[in-house]
Amino acid sequence: VRAEGDEKQIRRALFEAQKRIVEYFSGNALGKLQILYPNIDLQILENAIRQTEKTFSFVLTDISFIEFFIYIGIIVQRVKMGCEIEKNQDSAEYAGESREWFVCNFLCEQMKEHMQCSIPDFEMQGMMKRLKGLRFQVPMAKIREKNDLRSHNPELFDFMLDILREVDGKYL
Fold it and tell me: Were 100 and a residue from 61, 128, 153, 165 both cysteine, which residue would form a disulfide, CB within 3.0 to 4.6 Å?
């Protein structure tokens, strides 16, 4: 099967097809996608996204995680193939230091370090846009908010975070 169109259309088609594969196989769906990514270890990608969640203290819903996983996988695959989308004209809209920018920048660094793939800035803008539209089980909290919560009862707060990290570690 061959898809024709511009890069955005091809990526959209890849995303929709892979999303349907995941819906069909449900259980070990991410493992079923590995065959579509011969040059990418999807376990590394999954670990990078999980590490990003831990680092920035948020948790995506299962569906949002899978959608973000597929989206990032397609970006990495297409960039490695030399297929990049055209630069976005409204890049100034996504420049700056928003929480999403820090999250995507961290994730791009993970891709560079563990997958030898440099994600261009204009690709990161698409990631930020996608991240803003995802659903969270535990939303990204501002540092001030976390410090405010901790100030009420630091021992209990730290204890609960340790328990959550331990549980999270067992289910990765």
Answer: 128
* Cβ neighbours of 77 (radius 10 Å): 19
> Rounded CA gap, 2 and 19, in Å?
18
* CA separation, residue 105 to residues 57, 123, 172 (Å): 15, 11, 23
126 three-class SS: helix
Stated as kind and residue range, the H or E segment containing 138 is strand 136-138
What's 66-129 look like in SS3?
Answer: HHHHHHHHHHHHHHHCCCCCCCCCCHHHHCCCCHHHHHHHHHHHHHHHHHCCCCCHHHHHHHHH
Tokens of 123: 């690709």
Per-residue pLDDT of 118-138, as tens digits, reads 998 888 888 998 888 888 877
pLDDT digits 0-9 by tens, 27-63: 676 778 888 898 889 999 999 999 999 888 888 888 8
Beta pairing partners, 115: none
Question: Does the predicted TM-score (pTM) go above 0.90?
Answer: no
